[in-house]
Amino acid sequence: MDLGEILGRVGFDWQVATANLVNFLVIFIILKVFVWTPVQNIINKRKEIIDQGLKDAEEAKQKLSAAEEEAGDITKQAKEHADHILRESRDEGNAIKTRIEEGAYKKEAEIIEQGHQEVREERKKMMQDVQGEAANLVVDAVAQILEEEVNQKKHDEYSSKVASLIKNRS
Question: Which residues contact 158 (CB under 8 A, 6 or more apart)?
């Protein structure tokens, strides 16, 4: 029993098998040329698109990281600048405060000195008035004691002498 007979008993026909093999090869070639190659091209294009998308995503991630770092630097610089402006403003405010205080102390000293000067002038005037009154009182007292009438000329003369005596003693 040969192989052909064994296969024949099972229902295997060489002519049908050969026809099926030819049909399979024709369909395989048609599928390879018209389906497999275009599908492979589409898959390759999609793979390139995906690879480019991944590459772009990595670049975007790097750009985002760089932008966040730059934003941090800008924020830090802005904070330093704001602190600098705040310090300058505080220093300028303190300088203005100091100038105002110095001006106030100077004005206070001027007012005090002016008050002292007015008191000295008032004291001097009062002393002159007191001296004049004292001279008049002395002359009047002397006139009453001597009971003589003193004319106005002598009165002025005595007043001047007494005033100069009092002034010399002061």
Answer: 135, 138, 139, 142, 150
Domain that holds residue 90: 3-169
| Cβ–Cβ under 8 Å, residues 137 and 163 | no
pLDDT digits (tens, 9 = 90+) for 71-87: 999 999 999 999 999 99
What are the CA-CA distances from residue 15 to residues 10, 18, 92, 160 (Å)?
15, 5, 110, 174
d(CA 170, CA 159): 16
Residue 122 to residue 114: CA distance in whole angstroms: 12
* Tokens found for residue 33: 């040329």
Domain count, the chain: 1
